[in-house]
């Protein structure tokens, strides 16, 4: 319920004559009835039955002035003539609540919001963690929720190649014209080549439809809409567990999904047999969502032999592979190695979808830069698919932002910057690997229970899936001020070597003392 203290109905009907500053009448059309009314700041009191309205003004001094009372009198007269007075359209509406107030009844203008049925949404399971972290004032607090890279001082990091590319762009005095719907050509070319390798047959034969997207999320969403539109009823198979937003993306695009087994808590590893069985059991022609590298949240990737078997089964069942590549270069430190799963499928001549993101590997989180690539069996099909992706993008956001696209195109297109980028990426990936090792060492040294923590070393990418349950994760946050997602995932990209021992204490306490 909103108390209508100030009726901000400007623009409804024509403005009436102004009596004096601050107290003016306006003609308002409401439900076909016209009435003259006073704009005021606090509230209106309607004296019951008398047809008189008493108004509070913005300023006490104004109420004391004779002219103000004259203007009130004029207003009331006008309202009576129009037959509105306190039987106005406001009173006729059930949105006015009457309250008894000594001898007079007070009608506080309270409006029932049209949005009343909208309930409060829960905080986002990942981005909501950062909000809670910001509100915490404890000096030892640690944000291991969102996967965002931090320096050893736990500060956000802007890559030096990004700064160099931005300087180049500024020197060139680039304009801010709209991009085409499909995005920046130079970016689309660079991103597809980075993914497949410039000499890949799919590029040479122009069989890839590439459209710039709003980072990984927006690119996934474009593909989801394409699936909903052109493969109605087809299911997307997603790993259990997966990045939480995958489900939201397919739900909102009205694409049915189901899960395939992926993580085995007993081995703290891949449930490969379960995964293969579930992909086999899915209806023919399903889309199989795969994490290209650095599976989120588990940090467990199939081996190259396992990837071959996954490709076999997908081919047998006529499924369509759909890769989410959000961490190219960030898992191993090598762009080519992290793209090997995608390239293996492309080399088999399969049609596939790949969403890319530059949030992590170029640290362009807020620039929202990524792409959707759809490999088709002919260049003709690729052109048609691209035209439909553009058609999906146009009513959603018209065309994508230019800044991040130019940064990527400049970094990838300039051999010096490209090499420098690879070095910086190795450094970032290396720092994450070193805190992973340090955390493992600290846990092993401090925990005398005999528990084997080596699974942490086997996981790759920015995350570690600790195996802590919700209650234990809550203890990490409530007692230790370590912010993490409730599925037990911690982002090692947000950890410094200096905090490894503290984190190990928190994990040991939560693991052993909370069930
Ligand atoms: N796909 C996967 C598997 C991801 O982990 C993320 C990001 C994305 C796509 C999308 O990122 P983008 O839209 O910025 O390109 N996952 C983060 C952030 C790093 C997030 O939840 O949005 C995470 O903490 O899981």
From TrEMBL:
The keyword Transferase applies. Keywords: Aminotransferase, Pyridoxal phosphate, Transferase. It catalyses: L-aspartate + 2-oxoglutarate = oxaloacetate + L-glutamate. Its cofactor is pyridoxal 5'-phosphate. Gene3D superfamilies: Aspartate Aminotransferase, domain 1 (3.90.1150.10), Type I PLP-dependent aspartate aminotransferase-like (Major domain) (3.40.640.10). The keyword Transferase applies. Its EC number is 2.6.1.1. Residues 140-507 form the Aminotransferase class I/classII large domain. Homodimer. In eukaryotes there are cytoplasmic, mitochondrial and chloroplastic isozymes. Belongs to the class-I pyridoxal-phosphate-dependent aminotransferase family. This is Aspartate aminotransferase. It comes from Buddleja alternifolia. The lineage of its organism: Eukaryota, Viridiplantae, Streptophyta, Embryophyta, Tracheophyta.
